[in-house]
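Entry 12.
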Amino acid sequence: MKDKSQYDFKPCESTAKKPKRYLRLTNNMMESKAWEGLSCHAMAVYIHIKIKYNFTNEDNLSFTYAEGKKLMDKKTFTKAMDNLIDNGFIYIVRQGVLKQCSIYGLSKEWQYFGTSAFEVKPRVKRMSKPKGGI
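Predicted 3D structure (tokens):
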């Protein structure tokens, strides 16, 4: 049986002796078909969303376009968010409008990706303005 010290963080994982927070990405998640279907941009966004997770707010996470713009351009960010929704890693709790940001939740649907039990609700896409027309 392993003693508790064998589960401590290694020097390559943290500079703090006793890190207070950590990010959990499990092997079964990263080995799943759903994860394989994510773009590298979606993986990066997911990691940043998980940084905001504090073990009590799994249905109350925001990640704004302003935050996404620090990582990638707006179009790529939008595609990454849709990719995370479509593969069952996050879902929309509240879709933002005007000056109200969207709220996301962490989903377990990725575990059912590719099966008849897989159910996701895609983001409602806004109509684009017609170019040079009425």
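Annotation: Strands lie at 90-94, 103-106. The helical segments are 27-30, 33-36, 40-52, 65-69, 74-86.
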